């Protein structure tokens, strides 16, 4: 992986990441393709939207259809036909959140499948083996995630396990690469520590000392804490992260969250929000959110956002989308998802351009000014 910083302004960064499958310009939002597809959309849709990288989920793909089957089809790229980059998360969060009785120990996480109740065990090595099969460009290591709020003892244990697993993972990855496995795959470690500054500092310093990692993520946020606590934690943590490697904030978030965390030095984001909100009737626009379910849109001839250049806005009215939603038509999910993902990706393109032009503070003010009208 190649990484270059193209411009900075204050803490905001515009960077370029080159993987085996695509050139990724940051700040970047990664649409979530949990099951090797972004819900309601296919590879052609994602290419039309300009997606340079999407996220797949190791937990879900391990359980169904299985990583060996995906490997047989040429990995995620061959299976899904999306030719650009994939990032796969380790599945630790899903094992934690979807299993009623997941049990982490010193060596990994035991969990029961949410599909059939079968018992499974993830280790730092096994989740990498799964991701080698998936052929993702960026692989996340297994970390010990805890819900917030939590006790200091549990958060401390989380950091100790996450560091131990990170050491095991990078050692295993280097051993596999020496055997010719995963040569074009990159590996990111995940900083934990809740919203406690000393714990975050400890986790960041321990992990970032492992210089063979290709990038670093901030995990364990947007799991119940207040937004300001999340922003403060990110701002505190980035100072301990290397400047010459990508910084990824996992599972975040709203358009406002993206803007605030770009301002704090983050390069990469992912979240289910664009597609999940689309399916529920909430559409993102330059002036705020639109609830397309409202009766006031029943005869509205205008597009969702008159400044938007997406396929949906260029062709369809709010009245049509209101009708499709109320009628329960599947077409609604596709058109709404196209719009919301376009909005997120375009917001990142605009943010990058503002940083390159050294007008990031003005762009941030304009972003909020439009939403207050």
UniProtKB/TrEMBL annotation:
Entry EC no(s): 2.4.2.29
Q: Where is this region: RNA binding?
A: 251-257, 275-279
Active site (record annotation): 89, 270
| The protein's annotated pathway | tRNA modification; tRNA-queuosine biosynthesis
Q: Which GO terms describe its biological process?
A: tRNA queuosine(34) biosynthetic process
The record places domain tRNA-guanine(15) transglycosylase-like at 11-372
Q: Quaternary form?
A: Homodimer. Within each dimer, one monomer is responsible for RNA recognition and catalysis, while the other monomer binds to the replacement base PreQ1.
Family label: Belongs to the queuine tRNA-ribosyltransferase family.
Protein name (database record): Queuine tRNA-ribosyltransferase
Q: Which organism is it from?
A: Candidatus Marinarcus aquaticus
